[in-house]
Amino acid sequence: MMREGVRQPKSGFFVGVAVAGIGAAYFFFLGTSEFKEPGESLEYNLAEFEALDKVETDFVENDSIAVDVPEPHAMSVNKEKLFVAGKDAIAVYENDAPKATVAIPGMAVCLAAAPDGGLYVGLRDKVLVLDSEGNKQAEWNEFTSRSYLTAIAVDGADVYVADAGKRVVSRFDKDGKLLTQFGTKDESKDIPGLEVPSPYLDLAVNDEGHIWVVNPGKLGLERYQPDGSIVTSWYKPSVLKLEGFPGCCNPTHIAFTSKGELVTAEKGLVRIKMYEVTSGEFDGLVAGSSLFPREQSVRDIAVDSRDRILVLDPQRSAVRVFARKESEHGTEIQPA
């Protein structure tokens, strides 16, 4: 089949004259016209959206925990211990007090503390396995240059690793053997596929052993079986409703309380909220955007043994602590 060649102007002279004329007209009007201010619809005004979360909450912020780790990026809880990981180190706290520091080779981007005391540290494209004393036991390299690890969760003999770069979740045994990968689109199995526009892809396992994975591009969550089959999902895209998730890719982080309540964190306008995980019904606000500077994102969230909600705030280099308010009788206020 013959292909038509690229057409060229017959005369470069006429083209040059035309371009010069257009340029002269542009600069003439640029210098003499009075440009109006942009219309209201073009102004970058978040006041309307910030007003959504100016509501009463059942939570109060307590004293925060100062973090002495360069570039803190991830945290995890095991019983009374809190672990905060960053560049070249993991800080260990017990009952909110500093206890030890563990050296690691590189920048930790995600972390899981296992019930047996072991630590699973996600670097960008590998997982380090440490024992309870911080000694390296193994290094998993089942990833590629496209990988960008963002979350790890341990459930019994299984270790789940979220890879935002490859848009998959990998399930390993504790020896590092890859067992399953899931999250890729498969219409025959009704799996929509993980949409990950930015490096935020979180997952968590609740006390019933259910694996919940954020689908950030769809602004909701999906529940999977260990074999990678999908069980259920819900999505809540909304800019103008507090119970919804706004933006390109939220929630950024999730965690569960001991009662199975889902806690979420959003970026952009930072909000910490709670949901009933199976139905996706909104349960209330923990902390609104007025408590966080604009355009920041928290690095991680967790729930400790006292059901306090922990928020890793990189701008303060601190773990901020939110707990339920107490009633006049000294008991925690419970959701309605």
Secondary structure layout plus pairing:
Elements: H1 12-32, H2 47-50, E1 59-61, E2 65-66, E3 74-78, E4 81-85, E5 87-94, E6 97-107, E7 110-113, E8 119-122, E9 127-130, E10 136-140, E11 149-155, E12 158-163, E13 168-173, E14 178-182, E15 203-205, E16 211-215, E17 220-224, E18 230-235, E19 253-256, E20 262-265, E21 272-276, E22 281-287, E23 300-303, E24 309-313, E25 318-324
Antiparallel strand pairs: 1-25, 2-25, 3-4, 4-5, 5-6, 7-8, 8-9, 9-10, 11-12, 12-13, 13-14, 15-16, 16-17, 17-18, 19-20, 20-21, 21-22, 23-24, 24-25
Quick take:
This protein is mainly β and 336 residues long.
Structure overview:
- About 5% of the residues lie in helices and about 40% in strands.
- The chain is mainly beta and about 325 residues long.
- The strands form 6 sheets. Strands 1, 2, 23, 24 and 25 form a 5-stranded antiparallel β-sheet that branches. Strands 3-4-5-6 form a 4-stranded antiparallel β-sheet, with no helix packed on it. Strands 7-8-9-10 form a 4-stranded antiparallel β-sheet, with no helix packed on it.
